[in-house]
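Pilot study result, target chain (107 residues):
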Amino acid sequence: ALVSSAMAKVRSSAQADREAARAALKSASDTDPTSTTAGIATGLVYAVAARNYELAHAQLAEALRRKPDDLAALNNLAIVELRLGRRISALSRWQKASRISPTSGVV
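Predicted structure:
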């Protein structure tokens, strides 16, 4: 519920709403340290709304640390790595995702 509420705020054009979304996502992540959902969502907020790819990378890498086989984390981290010019690392993440789930539509 916290993640859904935060994502609704992310879609808002108001800066205050986006800041509130980041805080809500951090709270959700802290509440369940085994979940990757809030970390992935926070990474996407940084990547899409803020265009801060370094912070996005940190959030997505943390989500992947929590669950190394998370396809969404692997895919989104690879996309961010492309934005950062880290092509080899991005390719490696996509290859890992393909090995984990060869028929997945995520990658």
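One observation from the pilot: DSSP finds six helices and no strands in the chain. A full batch analysis is planned for the follow-on phase.
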